[in-house]
Write a structure and sequence with these properties.
323 residues; alpha/beta; seven-stranded parallel sheet; 11 helices
Length: 323
């Protein structure tokens, strides 16, 4: 921001326009979900954070493919509105709401218990829910809120549902990461707030890196089970994810809206990994917003770090006992 402040207004505007042009040129994916013939009749899918934005678009697509579609949402009111909209648009009555707040491990456990009790199968799990712009907050469970919402909650949810996914194989898990993972850092003490990452919106960037490390380690553990897991970047998408930021930040963000992907366009890479024949059998990989295999950051490919993060996450979520 200091650099921009030293530039004259014409140069400042030119930089904005050039950046906007680059975003616009990358906003369309060569893979079109509407041309993918995959039918999901008899299949069950879960999409977290499905009441708006990318999550709702993913759920809409999967419901159109005749899947039993479970919208895992924090808000009953917004979630039910999304259910009714998707049912009306797709003609699929098997679209249901289940309450889930990934910032609460208790909520994750209650949700998973209900799924295991009520659902005979699970074919696709999309870990889409995420937040950015929240202030540093320690939850009642002693965990940092953004890190729990974006990473630790989905980590626990996936592990609790793994046996059902394996029993339904072939099955797929899709973790929504971000191109911003490249600026993230990882320290297991971030999860409990004992340390904080430095920099603007650093918590979000670090959770997106953790999503990729989780994907890497999980893929190794799932070899031979018939369950695959991949991570994706939706690209720069015009959704409500910036709602927790200040008015100034949101105002600057709004300048780029004409150049961004729509939520429907941003959902393409998630849908690609969830249903496409092209992604069948691929696991442990990262796909960019154009549905192409992409090499993530060097940190995201650190298998020792992935294992260390996994072990710390197991302890914090109670999947293993504390040392």
């Amino acid at each position: 921001m200091e650099l921009l402040g030293t530039l004259s207004p014409p140069w400042w505007l030119l930089l904005l326009l050039l950046l906007g042009l680059l975003i616009w040129l990358r906003r369309r994916s060569p893979w079109d979900p509407r041309k993918c013939p995959t039918d999901l009749t008899g299949k069950t899918v879960i999409v977290t954070g499905a009441n708006s934005g990318i999550g709702k678009c993913v759920a809409m697509d999967l419901a159109r493919r005749n899947a039993r579609t479970i919208l895992a949402c924090r808000s009953r009111e917004r979630g039910q509105a999304a259910v009714e909209e998707i049912q009306a648009a797709t003609g699929n009555p098997a679209v249901v709401l289940r309450l889930l707040d990934t910032s609460s491990l208790a909520s994750v456990r209650a949700f998973a218990s209900a799924v295991l009790r009520e659902e005979p199968r699970l074919d696709v799990l999309v870990n889409n829910a995420g937040v950015t712009g929240l202030p540093f907050t320690i939850t009642s469970e002693g965990l940092e809120q953004t890190f729990t919402t974006n990473y630790l909650g989905p980590f626990l949810l996936t592990n609790l549902l793994l046996d059902l996914l394996k029993a339904s194989a072939p099955a797929r898990v899709v973790n929504v990461s971000s191109l911003r993972h490249r600026a993230g850092t990882v320290d297991c003490e971030f999860l409990t707030g004992q340390r904080q990452p430095g920099g603007y919106d650093a918590a979000y960037r670090s959770t997106k890196l953790m999503n990729l490390l989780f994907t890497t380690e999980l893929a190794q553990r799932l070899q031979g089970t018939g369950v695959t897991v991949n991570a994706i970047s939706p690209g720069v998408v015009n959704t409500g994810i910036m709602r927790h930021f200040s008015y100034t930040v949101r105002a600057v963000f709004s300048l780029f809206r004409p150049f961004m992907k729509s939520a429907e366009q941003g959902a393409a890479s998630t849908i690609f990994c969830a249903v496409s024949e092209e992604a069948e059998g691929i696991s442990g990989k990262y796909f960019d917003s154009n549905c192409r295999l992409s090499l993530p950051s060097e940190a995201a490919r650190d298998t020792a770090l992935a294992r260390k993060l996994w072990e710390a996450s197991e302890r914090l979520t109670g999947l293993t006992k504390q040392d």
